[in-house]
Design goal:
Its EC number is 2.7.1.170. The chain has about 400 residues and is of the alpha/beta class. The protein contains 13 helices and 13 strands. It has two domains: about 200 residues, 2-Layer Sandwich (Nucleotidyltransferase, domain 5), CATH 3.30.420; about 170 residues, Nucleotidyltransferase, domain 5, CATH 3.30.420.40.
């Protein structure tokens, strides 16, 4: 099957599209990347999403409008992905949509909301769409995150050494694969979320992130501010656990700076240290020797430098070493989840999300043709191999 994966992260910059050919060979999933695109949201939609995110108050009219407009822009992105990446033909679309709220109380996730009405994608492409990929895990008592743990475990399983996958989006998450032991996965805390909020704060909204870590490199860590930030109780919760902008949003940063903010460069340097420290401390108990790092945070040289230092002697590698493009890893993940759901295979790992049982991810919206699912596979895949595309 050729499957398109669509996603948008907590940065709300736009839509990532990846196309892949999947083959199921007993316990092995073979993934052949066909390419990816990154497409910006229209400025109006991007601003509407950001204006509605916590802690903002919004209306049901706004929710409906945002759901519709995300669906339409995802639909246009899917059509372009089919045309430019898949040679004009695909079998299935898997859409994560845009997370706008993750309802967490302590260590319990009560619900999760991703917007982007899949009917628009099905109508535009004629293909069935798998969407709402987190809710079934939440209904089974799980955190609904990090969903990346499935791809990480299938990709890293079988290695002789203890390895971890790290993704630094708005929130940072890790998956630890430990030989014969159960894998572990959880959100470590803020990735880029507070850094981006600080960049907007110090530039009056002109910049949405610290380009190349330049501001962070110009400053020094403020020890008192770092100590206050590290006192956050979330870091001491045991896994599985998940978090989001509902906790680590712009208002969190405002509260931390209520009694005085350091110089701009010092603020960014301190937040780089916060992300690097919380990731390193979260991984320390597992004794990993390799960390496969991806996400927007890896493009920040200041952050990558501190991670390299604090994670030592573990080495940092990239998904490219395993055949996957770092920028498209999450989109390939959602394509994989859609493929597995199509074949009746669970899309989450209870040891990683805390669910009572493995559950299939998402719900299916039919395309133009009657919905015909294949006979469910009788073998649960336990490995994933990335094959180079034929030229």
């Amino acid at each position: 099957m050729i499957v398109l994966g669509l996603s948008s992260g907590t940065s709300t910059d736009g839509i990532d599209v990846a196309a892949a050919r999947f083959t199921l060979d007993a316990g092995l999933v073979r993934l052949t990347p066909l390419g990816h695109l990154s497409l910006a949201y229209s400025p109006e939609l991007r601003d509407a999403i950001r204006a509605a995110l916590p802690p903002a108050r919004t209306t049901m009219h706004d929710v409906c409008a945002i759901d519709t407009h995300i669906g339409r822009e995802f639909a246009a992105a899917a059509r372009r992905g089919i045309r430019e990446l898949a040679g004009g033909t695909a079998d299935l679309v898997a859409s994560h949509g845009q997370t706008v709220y993750h309802w967490v109380s302590g260590q319990t996730v009560n619900g999760t909301l991703q917007l982007g009405q899949p009917a628009w994608i099905a109508e535009a492409t004629g293909l069935p769409v798998v969407s709402d990929l987190r809710s079934s895990d939440v209904a089974a008592g799980g955190q609904g995150a990090p969903l990346a743990s499935l791809l990480d475990v299938l990709l890293l399983r079988g290695r002789a050494e203890r390895a971890a996958a790290l993704n630094i989006g708005g929130i940072a998450n890790v998956t630890v694969v430990r030989g014969g032991a159960e894998p572990v996965a959880f959100d470590t805390g803020p990735g880029n979320a507070l850094l981006d909020a600080a960049a907007r704060r110090v530039t009056g909204g002109r910049a949405h992130h610290d380009e190349d870590g330049a501001l962070a490199r110009s400053g020094r860590v403020d020890p008192a501010l770092l100590e206050r930030l590290l006192a956050e109780p979330y870091y001491r919760l045991p896994p599985p656990k998940t978090t989001g902008l509902e906790l680590f949003g712009a208002d969190y940063l405002d509260a931390a700076l209520a009694h005085g903010a350091p110089a701009d460069g010092d603020l960014l340097a301190t937040l780089v240290e916060l992300t690097a420290t919380t990731v390193a401390e979260a991984l320390r108990p597992y004794g990993v020797t390799e960390v496969v790092a991806s996400g927007g945070g890896t493009r920040n040289p200041a952050l990558l430098e501190r991670l390299t230092h604090l994670l030592s002697p573990a080495r940092i590698s990239a998904p490219e070493d395993l055949g996957l493009d770092s920028d498209a890893k999450e989109s390939y993940l959602f394509a994989l989840l859609g493929f597995l759901t199509w074949h009746g295979v669970a899309g989450s790992i209870p040891a990683c999300t805390g669910a009572r049982r493995p559950v299939m991810a998402g719900r299916v919206t039919p395309g133009a043709a009657p919905l015909r699912l294949p006979e469910p596979t009788t073998t649960v895949p336990d490995r994933l191999r990335v094959d180079a595309p034929a030229h």
